[in-house]
Design goal:
The chain is mainly beta. The protein has one domain. It has 2 helices and 12 strands; from the N terminus they run αββαββββββββββ. It has helices spanning 2-15, 30-33; strands spanning 23-24, 28-29, 39-42, 46-48, 56-58, 63-70, 73-79, 83-86, 90-98, 101-107, 112-121, 124-125. The strands form 2 sheets. Strands 1, 2, 3, 6, 7, 8, 9, 10, 11 and 12 form a 10-stranded antiparallel β-sheet that branches. Strand 9 and strand 10 (101-107) form a beta hairpin. The longest helix is centred in the N-terminal third of the chain and has 14 residues, at 2-15.
């Protein structure tokens, strides 16, 4: 009976979770700019927490490829996997990097940007 009560409490809290702070954003694909994709690899632990979302670790050894640009920075999509962020809903996300820091995430399905405050410095192999 206690387990049922705990499960109900968790479900109720999840229903009250806030949505991500999502701002409309337009991705300019690399193909439109003629730029070549860059690949970066995370070599030290890092985690991001989009505004309104949960903290999400970025896996050490994960590789990311630039796919385009938005006003806030360069957009990197995970290679060999999908990066997910979560608030009220679950979203596929790409990292938005500016000056070697993750400044937010780009949600390709929603075509929106969600800021990460404060920005997170990345330790990388490769140059963003």
């Amino acid at each position: 009976m206690l387990r049922l009560g705990a499960a109900a409490a968790v479900a109720a809290l999840a229903a009250c979770a806030a949505p991500l702070d999502m701002r409309p954003s337009r991705l300019v694909p690399l193909a439109a700019t003629g730029a070549q994709p860059r690949v970066i690899e995370l070599i030290a632990p890092a985690a991001v927490q989009p505004a309104g979302g949960r903290r999400r670790p970025i896996e050490v050894g994960s590789t990311w490829q630039s796919v385009g640009r938005i006003d806030q920075g360069e957009v990197y999509k995970r290679l060999g996997g999908v990066f997910i962020v979560q608030a009220r809903d679950v979203h596929e996300a790409c990292l938005v990097v500016s000056d070697g820091k993750v400044v937010g995430v780009y949600l390709p399905v929603e075509q929106t940007f969600s800021p990460v405050v404060p920005p997170v410095q990345l330790t990388l192999r490769g140059t963003p």
